[in-house]
Amino acid sequence: MDARTGSLPAWVTCCLFWITPPEYREAVIGDFEEAFSDRRTRGFGRLKSSLWLTSELIHSGPHLAYQTVQHFWKRRTTMMTSDSATRNQSYLAVIGFVALMPAATLLASGVMQTFFGETAISETVFSTLHPAIVLGGLMIALTLNAIPLFRIEYHADSVALSGTITLKGRWRNAMVVVGGCLFLSAIFLYLCLENFRIVETHLPTV
Amino acid sequence: MLSRIEEIVLLTVCELDKQAYGVPIRERAEQLTGKKLSIGAVYVPLDRMASRGFLTSYESEPTLERGGRRKRFYRITRKGLRALREIQQLNDTLQALVPDSARLGAN
Questions:
Q1: Does A53 contact chain B (CB < 8 Å)?
Q2: pLDDT of amino acid A5
Q3: Which residue, among A115, A134, A136, has the nearest Cα to A125 in the 3D structure?
Q4: Do A4 and B44 touch (CB under 8 A)?
Q5: Chain A nearest CA to B104, separation (Å)
Q6: Is B67 within 8 Å of A159 when comparing Cβ atoms?
Q7: Nearest-5° Cα angle at A38, B16 to A13
Q8: DSSP characters for chain A?
Q9: Residue of A31, A52, A68, A153 to mutate for B, most B C-beta atoms under 10 A
Q10: What is the ipTM of this complex?
Q11: First to last CA, chain B
Q12: Do B1 and A157 touch (CB under 8 A)?
């Protein structure tokens, strides 16, 4: 007898193989095998045992699938902290710096126009850089670099749902996020000052 | 803080000692609670407690009665025992706060 041939129907083994996390696959399929064989030897008929097996599979399915998803996220988090992930984070920081360039150019030309009266450069920049490129670049830089920088975890138990936000010491990504936030605030400040001027009003005296 | 099912599974692992793997844990937990537990449902608290350090697990040699598949055995850790003790103490404290007239069986 082949060591791997059991009494479990092939479709059940196949279902369990796909819904169970790899760490527990062998143990879970083995448990199903043992419980099913036990029922058969205790005199339950094939039909009755098969019905029990189907019901057990339906009841176990959501639990096992939930565990598979959890293990997938755990592995993904572990991957993010490995050496190759560190390299990826550096790439993300470089992409972030490049994506910040349009906003940096726009702000630099604005500063030059305001303080040094240099209009030629600013006019060229303002006509070339579409707002979508500036804001899009900022959003890309912030999103790509915020993912490796922050880690959000939550734990739900019978009492309460608790969560933690961890800030990681990845200074390159942090620089991009801080720079992006500063540029974004400067742009919004400028927009507010340009669009909402303080107007002096004289209220009629009674 | 442990949930009720986690506490039951932890106590069962403790009781079964060296024979604590999926099938006997499930059977014993069913006997203790009187409720039906699926095989998959047992692995959720087991996995959660293993990741929290309350349990350790190891795989056995392949066995013929399981189609050549290994069993995953669980052992309780010191941290797990401490958690059980804390629950016991909390339960004792809470029980002591209940007035005698409100206790079950009191007329």
A1: no
A2: 44
A3: A134
A4: no
A5: 25
A6: no
A7: 100
A8: --TT--SS-HHHHHHHHHHS-TTTHHHHHHHHHHHHHHHHHTT--HHHHHHHHHHHHHHHHHHHHHHHHHHHHHHHHHHHTSHHHHHHHHHHHHHHHHHHHHHHHHHHHHHHHHHH--HHHHHHHHHHS-HHHHHHHHHHHHHHHHHHHEEEEEEE-SS-EEEEEEE---HHHHHHHHHHHHHHHHHHHHHHHHHS------PPP-
A9: A31
A10: 0.86
A11: 34
A12: yes
Structure tokens at A58: 């339906």
pTM of the complete model? 0.56
Work out whether strand B55-59 and strand A150-156 pair parallel, antiparallel, or are unpaired. Answer: unpaired
Residue from the list A31, A37, A62 with its beta carbon closest to the beta carbon of B39: A31
CB contact under 8 A, A24 and B47: yes
- Single-letter amino acid code for the residue at A90: S
One pLDDT digit (tens) per residue for chain A, 206 residues: 333 445 788 889 999 998 998 888 899 999 999 998 888 888 888 888 889 999 999 999 989 998 888 888 877 776 666 556 667 778 888 899 999 999 898 888 888 887 877 777 777 777 788 888 888 999 999 988 888 888 777 776 666 777 777 777 788 889 999 999 999 999 888 888 877 766 677 777 66
State phi, psi for A42 to the nearest 5 degrees.
-80, 5
B14–chain A Cβ distance below 8 A for any pair: no
